[in-house]
Amino acid sequence: MTIKLIIFDCDGVIADSEGLSAAVLIDLLAALDISVTHTDVRRDFVGRSFPTVAQTIRQHFGKPLPDSFEADYRARLLDRFTTELGPTPGFMAMLDALRIPFCIATSSSPQRVAHTLHVLGLTGRFAGRVFTASQVRHGKPAPDLFLLAAERMGCPPAATLVIEDSGPGIAAGLAAGMRVLHYAGGVHLRGHDPLALPDRVRSFDNWDDFPHLLMDLQEGTAIP
After folding, report:
1. What residues contact 19, with CB distance under 8 A and at least 6 apart?
2. What pTM, to 2 d.p., does this model score?
3. Is residue 133 helix, strand or coil?
4. What is the pLDDT of residues 12-60, one digit of tens each?
5. I want to staple 141 with a disulfide (CB 3.0 to 4.6 A). Which of 112, 132, 168, 191 is the partner?
6. Could you give the 3-state DSSP secondary structure of residue 93?
C-alpha cells in the first residue's frame, strides 16, 4: 500500500536530544548515589516515558526517588534544551522537501515536546499533529500511540510509515501494523553498537538517504 502518512518520533529522530537527556538524568541520579552510564540509558530508558523510567530505576536500585525528582529533571532538561538543543543533522532540509503528510508520536511529555519544537522553530510545522504517551493507556512498545496518531490523521496503519530510533518505538510501530525505518543518526547512537533489528526494518543514519528509502518503500523494492 502507498505510504500516505509518516509518523516521526521526536527525541533522537527530529531533535538530537537524547545525549542531553542522558547527561541530565545521570547527573541527577549521581547526586542520589545511583550510578548509571550512557550505555545503561541507551539500553533501558530511550524510547520510554519518564514515569516508566523512574519506576525502572526504583525497582532496579531499590531506592526511593524524591518527590521532586521528575520536576527537577524536566526543569533542568528544558534549560539545557533552550541553550544546547539542535535538530538531527539534515532533518530540516528533508522536512522542507517532504510532500507526504506527517506528524509526531512521542513518549515525551506535552510540555517537553512543545518546548523542543519551539526551540527548533518547528511549532508551526507540527501544529495540531503532535501526539504523546499521555493520551493513551499504554505507551511504547505497545502500539496504542501510533494507532491513535494514524486514526487522528485519517490514515490506515498499513499506509503509515514510522521513523524511530529506539527498540520500544520500533516494536510499537510493528505491533501497529505499520512499516518502520530505524534512524541511527542521533548523537546517542553514532559510534555505538547497532541496535538489533527485526529483518523487516531497515536502518539509516543520514537524512539525505531518506527520500531514496521512501521511494523504495513506495515502489515495493525495499523491505516491507
Report:
1. 38, 186, 187, 188
2. 0.85
3. helix
4. 999 999 889 899 999 999 999 999 998 888 888 877 778 888 889 999 8
5. 168
6. helix
